[in-house]
Amino acid sequence: MTSIDPAAQPAGPFDPPGVTWDRVSPRLITARLVVLALTFGLPLVACAVVAALVTPWVWIPAGVLAALLLWTVLLVPRQVRAMGYAERDDDLLIRKGILFRQLVVVPYGRMQFVDVEAGPLDRKLDIAKVQLHTAAASTDAVIPGLAPDEAERLRDRLTARGEARLAGL
Question: What are the residue ranges spanned by the domains of the chain?
C-alpha cells in the first residue's frame, strides 16, 4: 500500500484537502492487460487468419482491433495509477478515472455489508477486490487491486466502523 502525498495534489472537488490517498496494487495493471489481451487478441488473431486465408479486406477490422488494443494497453496503467481510496473519520473516499473522474463518498453509517472477492486471475496475481454495499442501489463503491491482507484489514475495519455508526456510538 503506497500513499499519495496530499500536498503534491492540486485541490479541487476530486482532491479534498488533507486527505492522504492509498493506491491500489500495480499488479492490477497486469490483471487488466491479461483480460484485454484475451478480449482483443483472440478476435485479432481470428481476423488475421481469415484475412490471410480467405479475403484480404478483413485486414481492416484487424487493424481497428490492433489500434484499440494498443490504445488500451497505453491507457490501463494510467487508469490504475489514478485509482485510490482514503479512510476518514466518518466516511470512505474512493476515486478513479482520468478523463471522466469520479469520487465516491460512502458514510460508514450507510454501509450494509462489505464483500471481498478474488477470481482465479486475481488469486494468481495476489490481489483482491473490496466492494461496499449500501442501501442505494446505484452506489459504485469498489476498490479493486488490493493485496489480500489489505483487503481483509479494510473489510474488518469498515465493518467495525459501520456497526459502530449504526449503533450510534
Answer: 27-78, 85-166
- Residues contacting residue 147 through CB under 8 Å, at least 6 positions apart: 1, 25, 126, 127, 128
pTM for this entry: 0.82
Looking at residue 24, the DSSP 8-state letter turns out to be P
pLDDT digits 0-9 by tens, 10-57: 567 888 888 899 999 999 999 999 999 999 888 988 988 998 888 888
pLDDT single digits (tens) 99-110: 899 999 988 888
How many CA atoms, within 13 angstroms, populate the side-chain half-sphere of residue 89?
2
Cα–Cα distance between 23 and 9 in angstroms, integer?
14
3-class secondary-structure state, position 17: coil
Position of cell 487491486?
A: 145
